[in-house]
């Protein structure tokens, strides 16, 4: 924009290049100057707003298509004004019309490129959607969803922007769904972790060598102590999960599924299996107790069982050996008798 041509339109005397010494400062000239300044400010606002819109579109398209950084740098002079105020833009030429036109051309080029890469972009968003559902343990049919996307694109009955907007909406709803399920999912993870410890503890208790002084035995012992504490909390975990899940289902009118299986059904099945295991443990304890009682009664009637370390039977009395006792130990009694007999013989002979 040429400054001198602008002020000349207000009044010719304001142009210094004309050589006119006196300047018009009439009310009409001042009014026209004020109107010109106001019009220029409005034009500046419009240009900045337009440039900011283009900058936002550029950034969205870049992010959508993973445009490399070296291509984005070429339009730094556009995107740097994304959040600028009108008074904050003071660099000469920052809002030039040719610069705005250049940004418009780039946005149009990227729009065309986006249309040609529609399938790639749509499938990328579908993958994002599937990952969100997977983290939330929500089961979907990804193959059917991909086939639907292909059919929509090939038919040409849907605008690329509409399809992407619809997928963005699906992603937003999926994130909301994940957020609503977070508390229950966190409790499910803790419950499943406790169940794993419960299974490990059962295997540990069946190990007859668990108290041996083998390497790592003390670590297993500590883990078993913690596992027992955790296992005792499982019934409370299950009760809380059932209450939370029922409240969630009543609020939304749908079943809470975990990887395609209703969570309440999973919890009911676990409670039933746990009860069966407890009954089996009680049965085995009662059976063991009954067996021990039977053994005690038999011992009272027929006598105690012989110790396996000492076989029963008539002991054979081992006589004294010529040079020692019964177990190879010299017999002090035999030695004394031999000494006394020898003394008597010597006296008699003498």
UniProtKB/TrEMBL annotation:
Organism, scientific name: Gossypium gossypioides (Mexican cotton)
Q: Which GO BP terms, alphabetically?
A: cytokinesis by cell plate formation; microtubule cytoskeleton organization
What is the protein's name according to its record? 65-kDa microtubule-associated protein 1
Superkingdom, taxonomy of origin: Eukaryota
Residues of the signal sequence?
none
Q: What Gene Ontology molecular function terms does this protein carry?
A: microtubule binding
Localization (cell):
Cytoplasm, Cytoskeleton; Nucleus
Show the InterPro entries listed in the entry.
MAP65_Ase1_PRC1
Q: Where is this region: Disordered?
A: 278-350
């Amino acid at each position: 924009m040429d400054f001198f041509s602008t002020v000349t339109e207000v009044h010719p005397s304001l142009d210094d290049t004309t050589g006119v010494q006196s300047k018009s400062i009439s009310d009409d000239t001042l009014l026209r100057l004020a109107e010109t300044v106001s019009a220029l400010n409005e034009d500046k606002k419009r240009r900045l707003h337009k440039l900011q819109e283009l900058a936002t579109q550029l950034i969205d398209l870049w992010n959508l298509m993973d445009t490399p950084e070296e291509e984005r740098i070429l339009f730094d002079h556009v995107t740097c004004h994304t959040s600028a105020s009108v008074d904050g833009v003071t660099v000469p030429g920052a809002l030039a019309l040719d610069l705005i036109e250049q940004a418009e051309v780039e946005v149009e080029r990227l729009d065309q490129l986006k249309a040609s890469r529609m399938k790639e972009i749509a499938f990328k968003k579908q993958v994002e959607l599937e990952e969100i559902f997977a983290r939330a343990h929500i089961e979907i049919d990804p193959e059917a969803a991909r086939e639907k996307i292909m059919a929509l694109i090939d038919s040409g009955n849907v605008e690329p922007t509409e399809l992407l907007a619809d997928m963005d909406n699906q992603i937003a709803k999926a994130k909301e769904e994940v957020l609503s399920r977070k508390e229950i999912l966190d409790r499910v993870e803790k419950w499943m972790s406790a169940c794993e410890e419960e299974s490990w503890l059962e295997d540990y208790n069946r190990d007859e060598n668990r108290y041996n002084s083998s390497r790592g035995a003390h670590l297993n012992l500590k883990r078993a102590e913690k596992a027992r504490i955790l296992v005792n909390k499982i019934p409370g975990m299950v009760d809380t999960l059932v209450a939370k899940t029922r409240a969630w289902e009543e609020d939304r009118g749908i079943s809470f599924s975990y990887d395609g299986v209703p969570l309440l059904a999973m919890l009911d099945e676990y409670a039933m299996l746990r009860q069966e295991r407890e009954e089996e443990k009680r049965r085995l304890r009662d059976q063991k107790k009954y067996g021990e009682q039977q053994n005690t009664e038999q011992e009272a009637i027929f006598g105690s069982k012989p110790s396996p370390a000492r076989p029963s039977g008539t002991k054979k009395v081992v006589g004294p050996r010529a040079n020692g006792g019964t177990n190879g130990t010299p017999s002090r009694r035999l030695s004394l008798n031999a000494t006394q007999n020898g003394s008597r013989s010597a006296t008699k002979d003498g």
